[in-house]
Design brief:
Elements (H helix, E strand, L loop, with lengths): L1 E6 L6 H20 L2 E6 L5 E6 L4 H8 L3 H4 L5 E6 L9
Antiparallel strand pairs: 1-3, 1-4, 2-3
Length: 91
C-alpha cells in the first residue's frame, strides 16, 4: 500500500472546482475496484490524501497520474510513500 499526497498551489481555483465532478467520479470508480482504499481532501484546501494499493511505487504513480485533477495540471506535486498499516481497518 502507498500513502499518496497531492499538493495544490492555490487553496481553491474555479477551474479545479469545475473539474471536481470528473475527479470524484474517477476516484469513486477506483475505490469501487479496490485500487484506492480511501481518499479525502485536507480541510485547509491545500491538497489530499489517498491510500492506494499497487504492486510498486511506479504502478501507484501511473494510477494517480490518470486522475483528472492530475491530467488537467491542478495537482502541483504528488508524494508517494510505501505504507504498512499495522492496526485498524486496512491492516
Amino acid at each position: 500500500m502507498f500513502a499518496v499526497t497531492y499538493t495544490y498551489e492555490d487553496a481553491q481555483t474555479d477551474a479545479r472546482e469545475a473539474n471536481k465532478p470528473a475527479h470524484r467520479e474517477w476516484l469513486a470508480a477506483r475505490v469501487a475496484e479496490g485500487t484506492i482504499h480511501t481518499v479525502g481532501p485536507f480541510v485547509d484546501g491545500s491538497g489530499a490524501l489517498l491510500i492506494v494499493e499497487d504492486d510498486d511505487e511506479a504502478g501507484a504513480a501511473a494510477l494517480v497520474g490518470k486522475d483528472p485533477h492530475c491530467v488537467q495540471g491542478f495537482v502541483s506535486s504528488v508524494t508517494i510513500r510505501q505504507w504498512k498499516p499495522v492496526f485498524g481497518a486496512m491492516s
